[in-house]
Amino acid sequence: MAELPVPLQVLKSALGKLPGIGPRTAERLALHVVQSGSQWVKDLSVALVEAKERVRFCQSCGGLTEVQPCELCADPRREMTVICVVERPVDVISLERSNVFRGLYHVLGGKISPLNGVGPEDLRIGELGKRLSEGGVEELVLALGSDVEGDATSYYLAERFQPLGIKTTRLAHGLPVGRGLEFADELTIGRALEGRRALDLGPSE
Amino acid sequence: MAELPVPLQVLKSALGKLPGIGPRTAERLALHVVQSGSQWVKDLSVALVEAKERVRFCQSCGGLTEVQPCELCADPRREMTVICVVERPVDVISLERSNVFRGLYHVLGGKISPLNGVGPEDLRIGELGKRLSEGGVEELVLALGSDVEGDATSYYLAERFQPLGIKTTRLAHGLPVGRGLEFADELTIGRALEGRRALDLGPSE
What we know:
Oligomer: homodimer
Distance between the termini of chain A: 85 Å
Low-confidence stretches of chain A: none
Shape of chain A: globular
Strand order of the largest sheet of chain A: 4-3-5-6
Largest sheet of chain A: 4 strands, parallel
Number of helices of chain A: 8
Radius of gyration of chain A: 23 Å
CATH class of the largest domain in chain A: Alpha Beta
Number of strands of chain A: 6
Mean pLDDT of chain A: 89
Order of helices and strands of chain A: HHHEEHEHEHEHEH
């Protein structure tokens, strides 16, 4: 018994393929499974296959969905004239939780990153071009991260779709709401200063 | 779509019950599953149920096994006169890998820890007493961790089984092999000094 029993070795190896789970953590999780209630283990086993089989990417926006097209793309109450471009499917959920944006989405599936071998053709940029060329879109909101690759991708998209004459905007940079200056880095404070706005005091009596 | 699709929510919640996996990590893992190859997801799903169903605890030593009693307990080449007491089933594997110990094991399933509500009756101490009272055991090797709880458990076991007249030993403390003094804490260095041994130069010509 210098080794784990075979079923545990198999489980450890399968768990070790999850991102961020090394061999030691995989072993710990596998041992936890053996010592847990069997109902939970069955539930997890079924949930894995169910999620993999039932959740798909929307053929239009690229977001996560169980139906084609997804609920957002099929919702007639959404503004069809605005498309918000995001990097990952989860970004759609983050934006929706803010309850501010009422348009449609387009998931790129990543950022342009020459160092990682990711070019424009590896992302859903062709699909975006197709949606835009079908007409009716007036504004493209670029909601990519503000790291180097996110910025590069934003500029690439803005340039590529400039000939279509569609207004291109990007999310504002500034201080996080509810946080003081002490938690913000100097780049963020700089951007917040550049983007400062007049206080709206409302109509005076 | 302010929320994940339902199958993903179910998967996230099941993954979140693993030790050390918080809601954010669970979400990240669930999204990874949706975007992975389906063969691996099926393999993981099957491995979970297989491990849970096939791996049991040995009724004698408490180690992990697919058969009763486990291969170690059933092996006639092991020294039946020595029992090594460990905390967890994986500790057996660690000790076996060292290829030094040739006796039998007994897994306690934890340490005595009044703060966490773990008393002697919650551990497999009664089972150990039964094995010892059956006779034939000459030495009890206590291989528990050397933290406060491990030490307390070691002393508890030594006192409890003193009337049986069985020799009780515990693992030596000292410097890890292959490491210099600079990596050892002062307690370990102190124990290493106390336990110093004469250099065996072999028979002189």
